[in-house]
Write a structure and sequence with these properties.
The protein is mostly beta strands and about 110 residues long. It contains no helices and eight strands.
Length: about 110
């Protein structure tokens, strides 16, 4: 069932209408690279990059960057440790298909 893609859904959902889906078989794995998704629904074992190239990883419900480069670092630091609580409004651009799970919600 992994290679089946839903292409059409028939029926209006009323009691007298039957909902029927039409599927096609696809022998290629889907490519999610470049798509935007809610970060909280993505894989927690993968690493993520922000627009500056900082690499983040999950630690529980937090996103952590060990060597974060930012214009807002205090005391003229070039790199700092950053820990951010993940919420549902955070969006990420997928850079690796392994970042996507069955529960991933796309924008």
């Amino acid at each position: 069932m992994d290679n089946l893609i839903n292409v059409r859904l028939y029926g209006n959902g009323s009691r007298n209408s039957r909902r029927r889906a039409e599927y096609i078989y696809c022998d290629k794995a889907p490519n999610y690279i470049g798509m935007r998704a809610k970060l909280s629904t993505c894989s927690r074992t993968e690493k993520y990059k922000d627009y500056k190239g900082n690499v983040f990883h999950f630690e529980g419900d937090f996103l952590v960057c060990e060597n974060c480069k930012s214009a807002f670092n205090p005391f003229s630091l070039e790199e700092s440790y950053m820990k951010i609580k993940v919420n549902d409004s955070m969006i990420v651009t997928i850079t690796d298909n392994n970042q996507v799970t069955d529960d991933t919600v796309f924008e």
